[in-house]
Design a protein that fits this description.
Blueprint: H1 2-20, H2 22-63, H3 69-103, E1 107-110, E2 117-118, H4 123-128, E3 140-147, E4 152-158, E5 166-172, E6 183-187, H5 205-212, E7 224-228, E8 231-242, E9 248-258, E10 264-267, H6 280-288, H7 296-300, E11 306-308, E12 321-325, E13 332-340, E14 347-354, E15 365-374, H8 377-387, E16 398-404, E17 410-415, E18 420-430, E19 433-440, E20 445-450, H9 456-477, H10 490-509
Parallel strand pairs: 1-15
Antiparallel strand pairs: 2-12, 3-4, 4-5, 5-6, 7-8, 8-9, 9-10, 11-13, 12-13, 13-14, 14-15, 16-17, 17-18, 18-19, 19-20
């Protein structure tokens, strides 16, 4: 009885601890599954060698063959060790390939154009304009997220202190080419809703989620805040693990944390979530898995797949741009310009993953091959500065994100963090040069360095030239010619005055 208590009591206490420490056990299980997936094959090989060694030893004892038994056991041990080490190295490599292949199951490579996407204010602009609009808030900004459903930027602010949660949520409208700067602030009840991601002890939101549902985790960068009236709602997209030898992640719904009552709701029905419900980190992992689009040798020697363009032009946000479709449905996508693996830096494809997805499987990812291809974002920035040097870049003005905006087009915004003044749109390398056009922030065409043949910009420029030529012809046909106004009737003089005023206004608007 005493021995049973000595063994059973510690086991019982350990079991109660694991049952109570749901957050710690969830992290442990996640990390152990990752480790065991890499060590499973070598451990099985070691177990097989040990079994064979044991069987050989039993046979020797039965047959009474003592001579040479020790040397055979040592040889078998060395053989097992070498085989186990070789299998471990092989599985570390091949297992990584199988993991990428598992994420490739939902990837489709097409030659069709990218769906039309709406341009938005750059991420760095949304981040810079959040702080001035927080007023007397004393907390620290922990997250900036673009919400494609409402075309707004959401800012989550942490309250200072170890045992505290969030202080306020800010949702602001930052339009391109407009004067609207509407914003909405919603404050947390710091007494009832006192948890945050990465908080201490019972103020840890991850601990509260694990207490409600074990074996799910999340990335802090995937979480964001929205304002439902005066109530802040923290949205945390969740993930789960699948597989044994090849462990991958899948979506697992969302956690909604009420900033007024502190109530936590976990749901897999994400239709009513006012923002991205599919984890951005999972979309990024799917994009990384495109390295396995070919065979194992191509994957090993990095001859297949694509990388995100990381040449420094899109500082702070180089991949998984959250953009809104232009079809007025409010749908959004994580969009990434892709370059081939290797030394090439031109953008040859664009990947899209929907920001909303129902079910427990991976969201469909589409890789659109570009024709024509684009120069690298860094080269495009240098091109913009060279071709439009009269508008870029002086004082605090700069070229911001170069993002895909549908079809085969890209858009770069030009201005300062507080005032976006222009945008430059391009269509890739046409006839040996990059086709680019300068537009006002609201999208009105100003001029083109090179308009792609057949593009809407070329047609608009031709229309303007025709209209200008028509006006010249009308002026030449007027009585007395342009220089002689004595023969003009009062009605003709009034019409001439109106046209001069319209032309002056047009030129002033065009810069």
């Amino acid at each position: 009885m005493g021995r049973a208590l000595r063994v059973g009591l510690p086991v019982l206490l350990l079991g109660l601890f694991f049952w109570w420490a749901s957050y710690a056990t969830t992290i442990m299980v996640w990390e152990l599954r990752k480790i065991l997936s890499w060590l499973a094959a070598p451990l099985l090989a070691a177990a097989l060698v040990a079994l064979l060694w044991r069987v050989a030893g039993l046979r020797r004892r039965r047959q009474g063959r003592a001579a040479g038994g020790g040397s055979a056991a040592v040889a078998l041990g060395w053989l097992g060790g070498i085989l186990g080490l070789g299998l471990a190295v092989w599985w570390l490599v091949y297992g990584a390939y199988l993991q990428d292949r598992a994420y490739m199951q939902s990837v489709q490579v097409v030659a069709g154009p990218v769906p039309e996407l709406a341009a938005r204010a750059p991420y760095l602009v949304g981040k810079a304009q959040a702080a001035p609009h927080l007023g007397d808030v004393t907390g620290e900004i922990s997250d900036i997220t673009y919400l494609p459903d409402s075309n707004r930027f959401a800012t989550l602010v942490e309250r200072r202190g170890w045992l505290s949660g969030y202080e306020v949520g800010l949702v602001q409208d930052i339009p391109l080419g407009g004067n609207s700067r509407s914003q909405q602030r919603c404050s947390f009840d710091v007494d009832k809703a006192d948890a945050r991601i990465g908080g201490w002890f019972n103020h840890n939101l991850g601990r509260k989620i694990s207490a409600r549902k074990r074996w799910v985790r999340f990335e802090a960068d995937d979480a964001y805040v929205t304002c439902s009236g005066d109530t802040p709602i923290v949205v945390v997209p969740l993930k789960r693990q699948t597989g044994i030898l090849v462990v991958t992640e899948r979506p697992a719904g969302v956690a909604l944390y009420n900033g007024r009552t502190g109530q936590l709701t976990l749901t897999t029905d994400t239709a009513a979530v006012p923002g991205p419900s599919y984890p951005l980190s999972l979309a990024a992992r799917q994009r990384e898995g495109t390295a396995a689009v070919g065979g194992f040798s191509d994957w090993w020697f990095e001859r297949s797949g694509w990388d995100a363009s990381e040449d420094g032009a899109n500082e702070g946000n180089e991949s998984e741009f959250t953009l809104q479709y232009r079809d007025a449905t409010g749908r959004g996508a994580y969009v990434t310009p892709l370059t081939p693996q290797g030394e090439a830096s031109s953008v040859v494809a664009v990947s899209t993953v929907p920001t909303r997805h129902q079910g427990g499987g991976l969201a469909p990812m589409t890789v659109h091959r570009l024709s024509p291809t684009w120069s690298s974002p860094k080269a495009l920035v240098a091109l913009i500065k060279a071709e439009y040097r009269d508008v870029c870049c002086y004082n605090d003005d700069r070229v911001f994100e170069v993002v895909p905006t549908g079809g085969s087009t890209w858009t770069a915004t030009v201005g300062s963090e507080q005032d976006i003044r222009y945008r430059v749109e391009g269509r890739g390398q046409v006839n040996g040069r990059e086709a680019t056009c300068l537009k006002a922030a609201d999208g009105a065409l100003i001029r083109c360095a090179y308009a792609a043949p057949g593009s809407p910009e070329e047609q608009e420029l031709k229309r303007r030239e025709e209209e200008k030529q028509k006006q010249k012809d009308q002026s030449a046909a007027a009585p007395g010619g342009v220089g002689d106004l004595t023969a003009y009737t009062p009605e003709q003089l009034a019409e001439l005055q109106r046209r001069v005023s319209d032309e002056v206004v047009r030129r002033l608007k065009g810069g």
